[in-house]
Amino acid sequence: MPADPVACPGGSVVVFDPVMTTYDFGPTHPMAPVRVDLTMRLAEELGVTGPDGVLRQVAAPVASDDAIATVHSPALLEAVMAAGRDPRRADYSFGLGSDDNPVFVGMHDAGAHVVGATVEAMRQVWTGEATHAANIAGGLHHAMPGRVSGFCIYNDIAVGIQWLLDNGAERVAYVDVDVHHGDGVERIFWDDPRVLTISLHETGQMLFPGTGFPQDLGGPEAKGSAVNVALPPGTSDAGWLRAFHAVVPELLREFDPDILVTQHGCDTHLEDPLAHLMLTVDGQRATYLALHELAHEVAGGKWVATGGGGYAIVDVVPRAWSHLLAIVGGAPLDPSLPTPDGWRDHVLTSMGQQAPFRLTDGRTPAYRDWRDGYDPNTWLDRAIQATREAAFPLHGLNVHGY
Fold first, then answer.
1. Catalytic: which of 72, 113, 142, 296?
2. Confidence (pLDDT) at 10
3. What is the pTM for the complete model shown?
4. Are strands 56-58 and 132-135 parallel, antiparallel or unpaired?
């Protein structure tokens, strides 16, 4: 593995417990918990985790009800607990019992475990016990204060950010690269100027949750605290990276956060069955590298990364998140490496599927820098420019940048 271009002297951790795979909506639901298991198996065989890995694994605590209630209503907690004891008591007014959010026995405990893992990741970094931390089972960014939504019971990210604020953080930056708009985190901190939320996603004109447009900028006390890039379907590595680099770095540098929190749904991939972007694992890896470098540039290296969406559970998720974990650990994986024989054998035996043979999709990500000019005839450039025109003046930044 090549050396990381940015050193991580404090060490890094992954917060994980195998019990977290009990966050399980059932055998026909697209968010299969086996994707997390396959990721952790692949990461260990690649030397990212395990006894000699670059990441130290720490136990994932279960969040208390009081911690979850810092962002969620007591009524929601009661409804989730009731449905988890007896699925016949699912209350649809809380989003429970829908196709997206079927109920299952023990769902409160499963959700609380994910929340606890993310809060622990935040604590590890904020206290200096680790430079970076990851919880790939986290990233449940759609859950609202009083409603489950989009496969998300509780919003672990928002609870973690609230923990940071309650423990002295003055400015928290959140960047969401899932294919779906990070609506829950945005809504929870909509009117809080201490939290900058940036979401790059497929436009809500085409995709759940139907929100996240450039004019969505935060509440009256926090205008500019929400930033949204609504990308056209079909956007691939080059376009996605063009959009990212045209928006994210300038905003983060201006905001000057104490800590960077990121959500890494890998459902932007061209093989993902639930959306319409066209990224490769190589393009996703380039994004992780860019966010890592930005964490060191703008936040003193303090970086917490979570998982998120991703429904190509064999071909994409394990490779994408193994790259993420390796970057969190300070030792990026060579994309040309083969996947280990033992991991491929496990996938074939347990899933009946042929696993990918390499960590790469065979692409070398490149993009045209925004400073080279804006083309109003392309949907992508119009989307980028709309975000810059809406958000940049609120941060004192140059709209054009070329």
1. 142
2. 58
3. 0.96
4. unpaired
